[in-house]
From TrEMBL:
The keyword Nucleotidyltransferase does not apply. The lineage of its organism: Bacteria, Pseudomonadati, Pseudomonadota, Alphaproteobacteria, Sphingomonadales. Transmembrane segments: none annotated. This is TolC family outer membrane protein. Its main location: membrane.
Length: 490
């Protein structure tokens, strides 16, 4: 096999091959969706956010309580003949809020709005995770290709050095030619080791995100619904980007916070019922119960007391030391901050979308140029070798041509990686890179609305969920990665 055929075979192996049994990008998505701790932690955080709604509603619901006590008097005044020695008490009360100045209503509205914001945040977490998975997936594919290309380059340079040494032995070349070939081979070996290290890093990043060791990765499918112009992408992003939608919801929630703070200076009304029972355990009157009545001491004291009452309580704040005004101003300032955060998020989304679109389009053009560069470099190398055989080119010319071909090959696989990652990043910025958009078929998708509907109207004090167990998988048992790649055909 000629050297040119060997190099072209390396290109095909590195950039175009499709293994028969390989991991797919869809499988990586499903594994990350099921086992990634960042996503499962965000889902748990959203469940915690859901509970703020029933917590806020609790302030507007009836409140009932009871107290029980036992008291023993060890010392008492010597002239207190009728003071009890001990007593048992029981009391209970029930209060029902009637009007709270709008505080409960607006607290519930704010909590519901923040739940909606959290659900958008969860969508954003999904998109960010999938974007990172795409980058890690493509990094492994790119670095495997780069390792193969560098290994092929080392093999070709080793053949060159052997041929140069043979020609030196017969006096056809000089020691300088041999030294140049040897130097270029050693540099290529160093570049191969760097490529190996990069591949190991990419594999470990993949494991950290996906939770499993990458196998032979298949080329990813084409990205759907990419926009034709940056303005189209921006318009879609401004409507559907989850981070921007979450910021808007939080801005609305702060408006309810202001209304809630204003309720602190308004009257409150509550209805109440309360009662008390006391039993002195026959220690209230120390006279012998069998002794005849003594008019001078009066009637015997009752050993039990009880009372009950019901009513309506109106509370009118008059002066609270300036606290309500400060809380209102604080809520207004935070509302202003939320408004600015919406604009800041909008700016970032616009910039991110335009940059991703530009990177994607540029990478597409780089791919076209690199493909032509690879073809031209391969043809140039073949011509330089032919011209060297008749004495018109030096060994250094061959080495330079080989290096140009390698650079073009690496640029091609890098551009393909950059194009796919930039395209997926663009979809994520447009709000189209979440689990529901990717059509994952690894089981039912997590729906945060299910848990919210389950807990939003809960009012029972003694109901709770089982203690949580970890959902994400650990990677401590995965083997340390290596950069071993299938050898090139001989």
């Amino acid at each position: 096999m000629s050297k040119r055929s060997l190099l072209l075979g390396a290109i095909a192996l590195a950039t175009l091959s499709t293994p028969a049994h390989a991991d797919t990008l869809r499988e990586a998505f499903i594994a990350a969706y099921k086992t990634n701790p960042t996503l499962s932690g965000a889902q748990a955080g959203q469940r915690a956010e859901d509970e703020n709604v029933p917590i806020a509603k609790a302030d507007g619901r009836p409140n009932a309580g009871s107290q029980f006590g036992f008291q023993e008097d060890f010392l008492r005044n010597a002239i207190s003949f009728t003071a009890p020695l001990r007593r048992v008490t029981a009391s209970g009360d029930l209060s029902v809020p009637v009007y709270s100045g709008g505080r409960v209503k607006n607290a519930v509205r704010a909590a519901k709005t923040r739940v909606a914001a959290g659900q958008y945040d969860l969508r954003g977490t999904e998109a960010s995770l999938f974007s990172n998975v795409v980058a890690a997936y493509m990094d492994v594919m790119r670095d495997e290709a780069v390792v193969r290309l560098n290994r092929a380059n080392v093999g070709v340079l080793a053949v060159n050095l052997e041929a140069t040494s043979d020609r030196f032995e017969i006096g056809d070349l000089t020691r300088t030619d041999v030294a140049q070939s040897e130097s270029r081979l050693e540099v290529a070996k160093g570049e191969l080791e760097t490529a190996r290290a990069n591949l190991i890093t990419s594999k470990e990043n993949y494991i950290a995100l996906v939770g499993q060791v990458p196998g032979e990765l298949q080329p990813p499918p084409p990205l759907p619904n990419l926009p034709k112009a940056p303005d189209e992408a921006v318009n879609i992003a401004l409507q559907f980007n989850p981070d921007l939608l979450a910021a808007k919801e939080r801005s609305v929630a702060t408006e309810f916070d202001v209304k809630r703070a204003r309720g602190a200076v308004k009257p409150t009304v509550e209805a109440y019922v309360q009662g008390t029972y006391i039993n002195f355990l026959n220690t209230l009157d120390r006279r012998d119960p069998d002794s005849p009545p003594d008019p001078r001491l009066g009637p015997r004291a009752s050993q039990e007391q009880s009372n009950a009452e019901a009513g309506v309580r109106l509370t009118i704040p008059i002066y609270q030391g300036g606290r309500p005004a400060a809380q209102i101003r604080q809520a207004q300032a935070r509302s202003g901050q939320a408004y600015e955060q919406v604009i800041a998020t909008e700016r970032n989304i616009i910039a991110q979308t335009r940059a991703a679109y530009s990177s994607w389009r540029a990478s597409e053009r780089v791919i076209q140029s690199s493909e032509r560069a690879v073809a031209a470099s391969a043809l140039s190398l073949e011509g330089v070798r032919a011209e060297n055989s008749v004495g018109n080119r030096t060994i250094l010319d061959i080495l330079n041509a080989e290096q140009e071909l390698l650079n073009a090959q690496v640029q091609l696989v890098t551009a393909r990686r950059n194009s796919y990652v930039a395209g997926f990043t663009l979809l994520a910025a447009m709000g189209r890179a979440e689990a529901r958009d990717l059509g994952l078929d690894g089981g039912p998708l997590y729906d945060p609305q299910v848990n919210y509907d389950r807990v939003k109207n809960q009012f029972y004090d003694f109901q709770s969920d089982p203690n949580p167990e970890p959902i994400a998988t650990r990677t401590v048992d995965t083997p340390a990665q290596t950069a071993d790649v299938e050898p090139l055909p001989k």
